[in-house]
Recover the amino acids of this structure.
């Protein structure tokens, strides 16, 4: 099973870990909802910058 970690990219390009062990991603009402393997959701405002499927990282940036 491949689970991902979500990082928020700040304006200075610094990365902040938001959540780990993410099993699913949804977009709802212009927000992103990341649900971990235990079913616990983390909801944030932003947009996906890019996803690294090899390293299992999801990068999120502030909305433009």
């Amino acid at each position: 099973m491949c689970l991902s970690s979500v990082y928020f990219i700040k304006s200075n390009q610094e990365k902040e870990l938001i959540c780990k062990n993410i099993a699913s991603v949804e977009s709802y009402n212009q927000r992103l909802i990341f649900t971990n393997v235990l079913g616990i959701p983390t909801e944030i405002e932003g947009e996906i910058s890019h996803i690294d499927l090899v390293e299992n990282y999801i990068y999120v940036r502030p909305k433009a």
